[in-house]
Structure formats: C-alpha cells, structure tokens
Design goal:
heterodimer; A: about 575 residues; alpha+beta; Immunoglobulin-like; Phosphatase 2c, domain 1; five-stranded mixed sheet; 19 strands; B: Rossmann fold; 6 helices; 7 strands; about 20% strand; globular
C-alpha cells in the first residue's frame, strides 16, 4: 500500500479531507445500488436517519484485533477504512488507485483520494482517530475552501470552525459551463441537457438524473423550468456568473450542489461608441455627406457616411465621392473612393482622387469630339463616328493624374502635418463611372482600382456588374490607386480595370464602396448574381427619394460590416431641369 | 462575414506547472473577457487554443468569440513544439476560408505562441509545415529561459520575452495580446491587416522585445 501512497506528493489538510470524506460517504451511500461494493460495504457504517458516517457502527463491524490498546484500536479504525477504500478502488479499476482520481468519469472526488493517502501515512495514522472524525463529521460539512492549505496536515486535534450548513454537499470536481448567450438574443438550454452533462461526467445514468433547482439572477431575463430542466428566455444584460444548481442522480436520491458558469455576451450593437474626430487633426472631413444632382439626362443621389468602426475610435470618414457633368456633351462623371483604414491620411487621398478625376474628366469630356462615343474595345457610336481618344485611355489618364496629385500632396502637404507623410499614408481605392445617354440607350464605362464596385440595372430584376472583384486570397488584400502596379499599362491590368456596357433599358446605376458591397454581396459570385442586385434594389429604391433618406438607410446594421459606406445612385431623369 | 482567426499556441509542458500554467489560464480568461467588451472583436474574432506537452492538442477548435469558453490547461510532459507548429498549420489550413467565387475570404490568421522551453521533438519538420501557411501577425513569447533563437525561426519579426512566468508578467502579456487582437480586428474592419510587431500596440514594460 505504501508504494501506492507515495505516488501523490501533495498532502491535503484534514480540513480538506473531512468534507471530501463526508461527501463521498454520502454519495456512495445515496448511490449504493449504482456503484457497487464500496457503497454497499459502507452502508452499515452510516446513520440511517442522517446518512452520516457513524464511527460507532464502523467499529462494530470493522475487524479490529483484540490485542491492541484502545488508542491503537482507535487509530486502526481509520487505517481500516482507508485500506478498505483503497482496496475497493483497486479492485474496481484497471488502473492504479491514485490514477483513478484523474479519470474524468471517476465517481470519487480526487480530493478524497488524496486524503486517503495522506491519512495513511504512519504519522497521521498515529494521530488520527475515528473519534476525531466522528466529532468533525458531526459538525457536518466544513466549508474551508477559502482557507489556505495547512502545512501541518496531520496534526490533530484540528481547530475547526463549523460553517453554517449548506443544504447539500457541494461537488467541486466537475466544471460545467452553460452555452454562452448574447444579450437581446433568445437563449435556451434544452430540458435534461444540464443533468445529462453532469451525469455523463460522473458516470451516472442520465435517464434518471435531474436538476431540481438552478439559481438564475432574478433580472437576467432567463427562467429555469424545474419540471423539464430547461433554461429559456432572452437575456436582458451581459453576465459572467457562477450559478448554483442542485443535481440528483435519481428522483429518490439526495441532491448534490454543483456550480455552473454562465456567460452572456453584451449585444455588440450596444458597445459601439460615436466619437467625434479631433478638431485639431489635419484634413478635416465631415462624418456625413450627401447631395442630389439634377442633370438633363440623369438624376444622381449620393451619400457617404462614417462607419461604426471609425465612429467608435473617433476617426474620420475615409470614403469620398464626387459627381460632375459635362454639359456640352452630356457625359456624367461619378467618382467613389475608399481611403484605407490603415493609412492615416487616406481621407485626403480619397478626396483628392475623387475631385481631381471628376474635374479633369468633365473638362476633357466637354470637348466636341466626345459628342460621340468610341472605345478601344467596342466602338459605340450613335452617329457618324469621329476618331476620338478611347474612353478607356481617358479614364486611365484620370486615375494616373489623381495618383500624381496625391503623390505631390505627400511630398508637399497642403496642411501642416506632424511629420512628413509618405505616399502610402494616402492609400485609397477609386471607382470611376462615366455615363452618357445615346438616344434610348445608355452607355456606361468604369475604371476601378481596389474593392467596392459598380453595376447597372436594366430592370428592377436585372443588373450587369460593371466592375470585377479586386481582392486577394485573404480578406483585406486589395490594391490602391497609390500603389504603382495598380496603374500598370500592361494589357491584362487595363483589361481588368476597365469595363463598358451599352444598355437599352436603363433603370439605374450604382457605384459603391466596400462598406456597401461587403454586406450586400457576400461573395464574388453574389456580385455577379442578378438576384442579389434585385434584392438590393428592392431595399434601396424607396430610399432614393432624397439623399437624406439614402444616408439614413446606409446606417443599416450588419455584423462585422462597419466600414465607411458610400453609395452613388444614377437614375434616368424623368423631369430634367429646364436648360 | 469575414472572420479574424486567432490561434493561441500554449506550452503546457511540465515546467509550466504550478503558477505559470495557472497564470496562463487566468490570462486566457482575461483575454476573452476583455475582448468581449470590444464590439469589433466580438463580431469578428474567432479563437482557438492549441497546447503542447509531450504531444500537441487542439484544446479548443476555432470558435467565435461569443461562444468561446476558456479551457482549463494543465501542465505535464515535455515540449513537442514541432508537433504544435504542424498542428496549428493543419488547423489553419482546415479552418481559414480563402477567397472563392462563392465565399469571401477570412482575414489572415494571427498566431501567438508561448513557451518556456526547448523543443524536444522534430522542430524543423513542424517549422517547415508552419511556414507553408500564410499568417497575419505571428508573435512568439519566450517565458523564463526559453530559447529565443528557436522562436526567431517561427516569428522572425516578433519575438518577445517574459523574464518571469508569474501572474503579473503573464497578465501583462495577455493584456497586450488582447490589445493586439483588438487592434487587428479594428484594422481588418477598415480593410487592412497587420503584419509584424511594429504594427501591433507597443508591448508593456514586462515584455521585452527580442526581435
């Protein structure tokens, strides 16, 4: 036996031992039929009415040699009990006795096993007597978990202060956590699930196990149904708590107290803050922007709003847009840009990109030769064509010039900055959209660098994407106007960035930053899917009454999507303002 | 939705037993509690806990932060760091969604590796497998006298060291990890991800920057 006993180094205190012993005896007793020999064997040692260990009974049944002194005999009581317990564990387990306590399904509290060994050392045997146990067990369950471990583990008598009695013994060895919940979202744990988990951990039969009581905080919004063992409700607030429950292995068994932890997350929507950016910071930009443009052929409704992720930190809106119209030739120019969140002056980058492209494109497209449309890929003419510069090249040049302008800003900032910036401090995407009415038809061309996208509706149900996805293998990998390779003149690069369409039934065109496309088009395939576009249109159309209502709609909540949002909607103008 | 996968790879070998492993458990608990107060992390971050002793274990598979329940890590055995590297790489390959026509990509995963020892297994094999995956930030933390040269191989740009493995130092480390995940989940929401130590928040004084 001593070999076995030496396997565990740390010796628990007697104060730890007694509750464990009391608990184990009670458990073994109440689970007499379920757990075989030891339970049966110790049953005669327990007081029938209290189910407590009764040393007198023990002495009457335990075999104790007659030729011992009374003191020795008393010590033998403990030794016999310990020995008997260890024998039982050995004979009921394939494993060595003190490894049994590590089995997840062990019915014996590990503490109890440790105590058996500590009480089996020669010194402790000399000092421990059943009398002492008896006294201490009479004072019932001793709550001592708060007390530091006592180095004098074997010294007796032990000064104990009997704590007030909890109604049932506590089982400290099985840690159970209920499923986590979130404030404001319905929560449920099915009936029988908690009892089943505990039964499984203890090796009980889940068919008979039940929970008679679960102590939930009263204003938590959650309710425990004692009849079914289910927890249901909608949590009212975040919670991180340890709850007490009473578990019974069978309807007739005495209940055992367990602790379960319950965690209710805060509602993420309630955690967002709305902080204003510092008024001293360079490159001030309004958190909201919106405008309606009435042109002879088009009505344009544009709105841009700061995302929650920026509002939460008091950062600026990094998105921007610009809209212009070449009055002499009827070209509409829409620029939308998304400054990179990681680049500290990207709000300026997106602003330069939009305004410089708009101004330059409107200026050029007002030239008489752009009365008619020609592109490198698909000549589109509604009259005798004249040789014009391809639209693709025009758009490319606009982007190139915007890049150069941003570069000049980085070299010679227009506002005083704490330290010299780099070009990459102004990282921004850019989507350029050109449109022109051609009789009943409508021509649209785009040039895009980075994510976000544009599309044109030919009916409320049908849309043609005007941009290709521009993301990498992982999220967040995109390209920027400020990265030279995005402006490569290699055909494959230009091919990817330019697109044009001629549509007969122009319903609307949209140009959006990824703050809109990410939540509304969950994948690249969705961006090519008319169904997604028509869902978006159904949601969007009623809001296009005014740019204010569009701006309001753009505040929609979508988990994980809190970037700045910018959307420019181009509609045919049924009642153009008189020229 | 785009997720930010975070792998905590923790040394649970025998030398960590006692206060160090308790501090690690408290640290993970603290990390999760703090992240839950951050709306961006709450919606974006997914956590996994991988431990290594004489072998490597996926203790908690990649789980969204609201559902995550902190495990109880116990310490024993030797230091199968190579196996842990291989395991985390395999988990990332299985878990992390790459861009495809029908799905948006996850953010590149962050890895935090903490050890107080020397690998006792085939480290190079595990390292080679680890290097095959694309990681966002990789941070290796040497506790006590862990071999920082080994860790530099794992995280060439971000090795930090804790002189002691007591609760205070460990708590400082996990606070810093929390801030790093928080920052990363913020920047990913703004369309950008982190790489290397210079883009993480500055470590507290308890943490020495080795690389």
């Amino acid at each position: 036996m001593s070999d076995i006993l030496q396997q565990s180094k740390s010796s628990p205190t007697l104060q730890e031992f007694l509750p464990a012993l009391a608990e184990t005896l009670s458990q073994l007793h109440s689970e007499n039929s379920a757990h075989g020999n030891l339970g049966k064997d110790i049953a005669p040692w327990l007081d029938e009415s209290t189910a407590k260990f009764d040393p007198t009974k023990f002495r009457a049944t335990a075999s104790i040699s007659d030729d011992l002194t009374i003191e020795e005999r008393k010590s033998r009581d403990v030794a016999d009990f310990v020995e008997h317990s260890i024998f039982w564990i050995s004979s009921n387990s394939q494993d060595e006795p003190f490894k049994v306590c590590n089995h997840p399904n062990s019915i014996l509290p590990p503490l109890f096993l440790k105590l058996l060994e500590s009480c089996s050392t020669p010194e402790s045997l000399r000092l421990q007597t059943m009398e002492n146990f008896s006294e201490l067990l009479k004072s019932e369950y001793i709550q001592n978990s708060e007390q530091p471990a006592n180095a004098e583990t074997s010294s007796l008598p032990v000064e104990t202060t009997a704590a007030p009695l909890p109604p049932t013994p506590r089982s400290p060895n099985i840690r159970i956590a209920l499923r986590n919940g979130t404030a404001g979202k319905p929560y449920s744990v099915e009936g029988g699930a908690i009892a089943g988990r505990i039964a499984e951990a203890r090796g009980d039969d889940p068919a008979f196990a039940s929970i008679s009581h679960l102590q939930l905080p009263c204003d938590s919004g959650l309710n425990f149904d004692a009849a079914t063992g289910a927890v249901t409700g909608t949590p009212t607030r975040p919670l991180e708590d340890v709850l007490l429950l009473d578990y019974a292995v069978s309807p007739s068994a005495r209940s055992i107290r367990f602790e379960v932890s319950l965690l209710i997350n805060p509602d993420p929507a309630s955690l967002w803050k709305d902080l204003d950016p510092s008024p001293e910071a360079p490159y001030q930009k309004a958190s909201l922007a919106h405008e309606t443009f009435n042109y002879p052929d088009f009505k344009v409704i544009a709105a841009s709003r700061r995302g929650r992720s920026h509002a939460n930190k008091g950062d600026f809106r990094d998105d921007d847009f610009a809209v212009g119209y070449a009055e002499k030739t009827g070209w509409l120019v829409v620029a939308v840009a998304d400054g990179a969140g990681s680049a500290k002056y990207s709000r300026k980058g997106s602003s330069i990109a939009c305004t410089s492209c708009r101004d330059w494109l409107v200026g050029n497209l007002n030239a008489p030769e752009y009365q008619y449309v020609g592109t490198s890929k698909q000549p589109v003419m509604d009259s005798e064509s004249q040789p014009v510069r391809p639209i693709r090249d025009l758009l490319y040049d606009a982007a190139r010039l915007a890049h150069d302008k941003i570069e000049r800003e980085s070299q010679n900032p227009s506002e005083s900055l704490p330290e010299p910036p780099t070009l990459r401090n102004y990282d921004t995407t850019l989507i350029l959209l050109l449109m022109k009415k051609m009789g009943d038809a409508c021509f649209a061309a785009t040039f895009s660098i980075g994510d976000g996208g544009a599309g044109i509706f030919t009916s409320p149900q049908d849309a043609i994407p005007l941009t290709l996805p521009d993301g990498g293998e992982h999220a967040g990998q995109t390209t920027f106007l400020t990265i030279p390779s995005s402006l490569s003149v290699k055909p494959e690069n230009l091919e990817k960035r330019y697109h044009n369409e001629v549509v007969q039934n122009f319903t609307a065109a949209l140009s959006m930053t990824d703050g809109i496309t990410d939540p509304k088009f969950p994948s690249d395939a969705a961006f090519a899917d008319s169904a997604c576009w028509s869902t978006l249109w159904a949601e969007l159309e009623p809001t296009l009454e005014s740019s204010e209502s569009l701006l309001e709609w753009m505040n929609f909540f979508s988990p994980g999507n809190h970037d700045d949002r910018t959307l420019v909607a181009v509609l045919p103008n049924p009642s153009p303002t008189a020229e | 939705m785009r997720r930010l996968p975070v792998y905590l790879v923790l040394d649970a070998s025998g030398s960590m037993s006692g206060e160090p492993i308790q501090a690690v458990n408290n640290g993970v608990q603290m990390l999760v509690s703090a992240l839950r107060q951050d709306p961006q992390a709450l919606e974006t971050a997914y956590l996994s806990v991988i431990t290594f002793d004489s072998s490597a274990h996926e203790l908690v598979p990649l789980t969204d932060l609201p559902s995550f329940q902190a495990p109880n890590v116990t310490a024993s055995g030797v230091t199968a760091m190579g196996e842990a590297l291989e395991l985390v790489a395999n988990c990332a390959r299985r878990d992390v969604i790459k861009a495809s026509g029908t799905q948006k990509a996850d953010w590149r995963p962050m890895v935090f590796i903490m050890t107080d020892g020397m690998p006792t297994d085939d480290f190079e094999k595990g390292l080679a497998r680890f290097k095959q995956e694309k990681w966002g930030a990789i941070v290796a933390c040497a506790v006590n006298d862990a071999d920082t040269d080994i860790l530099k191989k794992i995280a060439p740009e971000s090795v930090v060291a804790l002189d002691t493995a007591d609760s205070a130092a460990m708590s400082a480390f996990f606070k810093w990890v929390t801030a790093s995940i928080g920052l990363s989940s913020k920047s990913v929401q703004n369309g950008k991800e982190l790489e290397g130590l210079d883009q993480l928040p500055p470590p507290p004084p308890e943490i020495q920057v080795v690389v």
